[in-house]
Structure formats: C-alpha cells, structure tokens
Amino acid sequence: MNREIIKTLDGSTTIHIKEWNECYHSKHGAIQEAQHVFIKNGLSLFQNNNVSILEIGFGTGLNAFITFLESKKMNQTIDYVGVEGYPISSEELLSMNYVEELNASLDKSVFEKMHQSKWEEKTVLDTHFSLVKRQQFFTDIEDQDKYDLIYFDAFGYRVQPELWSTAVFKKMYDALRNNGVLVTYAARGVVKRSMIEVGFTVEKLEGPPGKREMFRARKSE
Question: Which ranges of 43-202 does DSSP label H, i.e. alpha helix?
Fold first, then answer.
C-alpha cells in the first residue's frame, strides 16, 4: 500500500496509508493523542508502581518513547512489549520528528535504540525501562495474566474491523492480570459490546483532541 509521511495538527508526524485514508495516529495531533489516551488515562493510574505494558501496534514507536519519558518523571520501572505485524521502514523512521517535538534531544539515542534493537529480544534501554518488540499478528497473541496495562492502538474499526472482534479482546482480557487496564482511542458501540462480552468493565472517557470519547476497560474477576 502507498504510505506517506504527514504532519498532524500539533506539529508531530505520522504515517498516512492512502488506500485506506487511515493514519497511524490522529491527524489532530499524534503526540497529543498518545499523551491523552495512553499516558493520562492509562499509565498515570500506576504512578510509583512497576508496570508491565503490552502495546498493540508498536508502529512508529511514539507510544513507547513517550512512555519512556514519562516513566522517568513518575518513578516507574517498566517492562514494555510492543507487538507489530508490519514494522515501518528505516526511511519512515528517519522522517519522524518526535524527539524534536517532545524536546527530548537528551534521549534521542533511546528512541533510535528502540528501533535498532532486534525483534524478539529484550533490550534494556535504561535502568528502569526494558523493551521487547515482537513481530506478530495480534490474533496470534497467547500471553496469560502477564500485563498490568494494554495500549490498544490498532488501525481503526472502519478499515480493520477484525482487529476489534470479540476473539481479539478475549486475548487481551487473558493477557491482563487481575485489575489490569486496557486503554484505546476507540469509542464505537460495537467495540464496547465486544469488550463487555469477554468480561471487561468499560468506561467512556473524554477523548483526545478531535475525538469526543474514548474507552478504558478493566479486568476484574
């Protein structure tokens, strides 16, 4: 598929897939979306605690990099697993401006190492942050009771409804520990029904810029 680099409304870049008219991040602001959905409404719930995170859709590495930066502020040790079926190219990576837009020049080497690290191997990025990238389709995830937090950042329901199915959310539910949390930018009724069907308790929250609502789901047995 044809892919192009575009700049979102907050100045940060993302990848746009022309055939789908779908972006890796919100056109209204890639960084703003990541901070609102995954940090404010996800990671912040675990302040001062060690956290094991699963990201569904590693993509450009934006969510992982912002999580790394926030974990230093929030006194957290994080084990981060990013799952991606189709890794981005080195050319696309070089076009991402997240280090500059986040004023994170001191951690530029960390962002680069995130992408240079080998797939399927654990990479220690800092004393408090480790990363494992898995090249894997979401439907093949078989983790059990392993994570405190899931960033569910798959392509939208409009273009890939199969990624938002009951079967996929059952895998997410099983992968979380008890009282674990899943956050996503999505807010469709069909998505909520799939989450509830597998056992999640779902709450609707204010969405990021350009989007009215989002979901946060909790596993409790």
Answer: 62-73, 90-94, 98-101, 108-116, 166-175, 189-198
